[in-house]
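can u do me a favor
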C-alpha cells in the first residue's frame, strides 16, 4: 500500500521521495516530452530514455492502476498505432502529476504550468505576489509591459514593486508602461531599473527580501508555447537574494 509518512510518499520496495520532488520531476518529464511519436521506424535512444524515465516516475506514485495503464501504453509504442499509445502515456503522466500535487504544500501546487495555459500562469504568479507584505523584486532580462498589464495588479496595495531587467534585452514598451502605471496607481508604487547588458541570466521573484522563486521563462512568454515552471528556491534563497539585491543597488534607475 502507498502511504504518506511525515509528508513523504512511501512505496513498497521503493525509497522515500518527497511529494514536492516527485511533482517537480513529473512536470519536467512532461516538459521534455517528444513532440510526437509516430511512424513505424525504431525508437531513437533519446525517445527510449524518455519513455523509461516516464515509466519509472509513474511507478513512484504507487498507484497500481496507473502502473498497469503505463505498461499497456508502453507496449503499444512498439506497434504501428504508436501515436495513440504515446498520447495515452502523456495522459497517464498528467494523471500522476495531479495525484502527487494533492500531497504537496499549497505553495508548490500549481507550480508546473502546461503550455497554452495563460490563466494557470497568471494564477501561479498571482499566488506569489499576493503573499508580499512590503516589497517584491521581479527579475526578468526580457521584461516587457506584460509584467505590469497582466501580473503586478495582483500584489497588495502599498507593496513596492521593483522591476529589474537587462538594458540590452528589455522590450521598449516597459518604460512608458511604467510611467503610465505611476500616473494611475498612487497606492501601488513601482521602481524600474536596468542592469548592465548580459548581467542577468535568470528569472526570479523575491518577496520581502526573504523568499525566492525561480521561473523557467520570461513572464511575457510564460506557458504560451512551452511548459513553464515556478519553483520555490528555499535551498539557494540565501545566495540568490543578496546577489540580486547587489545587482539592484548598482542598476540604473529608469522609473
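np, heres the sequence
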Amino acid at each position: 500500500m502507498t502511504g504518506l509518512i511525515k509528508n513523504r510518499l512511501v512505496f513498497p520496495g521503493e525509497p522515500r521521495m518527497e511529494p514536492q520532488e516527485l511533482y517537480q520531476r513529473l512536470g519536467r518529464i512532461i516538459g521534455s516530452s517528444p513532440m510526437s511519436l509516430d511512424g513505424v521506424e525504431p525508437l531513437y535512444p533519446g525517445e527510449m530514455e524518455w519513455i523509461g524515465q516516464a515509466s519509472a516516475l509513474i511507478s513512484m506514485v504507487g498507484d497500481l492502476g496507473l502502473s498497469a495503464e503505463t505498461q499497456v501504453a508502453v507496449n503499444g509504442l512498439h506497434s504501428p498505432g504508436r501515436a495513440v499509445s504515446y498520447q495515452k502515456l502523456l495522459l497517464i503522466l498528467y494523471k500522476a502529476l495531479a495525484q502527487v500535487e494533492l500531497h504537496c504544500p499549497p505553495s508548490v501546487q500549481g507550480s508546473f504550468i502546461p503550455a497554452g495555459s495563460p490563466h494557470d500562469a497568471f494564477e501561479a504568479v498571482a499566488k506569489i505576489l499576493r503573499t508580499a507584505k512590503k516589497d517584491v523584486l521581479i527579475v526578468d532580462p526580457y521584461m516587457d509591459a506584460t509584467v505590469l498589464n497582466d501580473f503586478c495588479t495582483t500584489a497588495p496595495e502599498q507593496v513596492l514593486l521593483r522591476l529589474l531587467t537587462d538594458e540590452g534585452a528589455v522590450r521598449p514598451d516597459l518604460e512608458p508602461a511604467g510611467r503610465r502605471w505611476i500616473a494611475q496607481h498612487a497606492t501601488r508604487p513601482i521602481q524600474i531599473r536596468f542592469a548592465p547588458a548580459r548581467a542577468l541570466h535568470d528569472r526570479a521573484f523575491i518577496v520581502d527580501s526573504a523568499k525566492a522563486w525561480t521561473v523557467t521563462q520570461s513572464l511575457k512568454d510564460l506557458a504560451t508555447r512551452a511548459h513553464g515552471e515556478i519553483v520555490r528556491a528555499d535551498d539557494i534563497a540565501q545566495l540568490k537574494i543578496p546577489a540580486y539585491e547587489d545587482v539592484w543597488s548598482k542598476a540604473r534607475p529608469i522609473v
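Residues 54 and 88 are 12 Å apart (CA to CA). hope that helps!!
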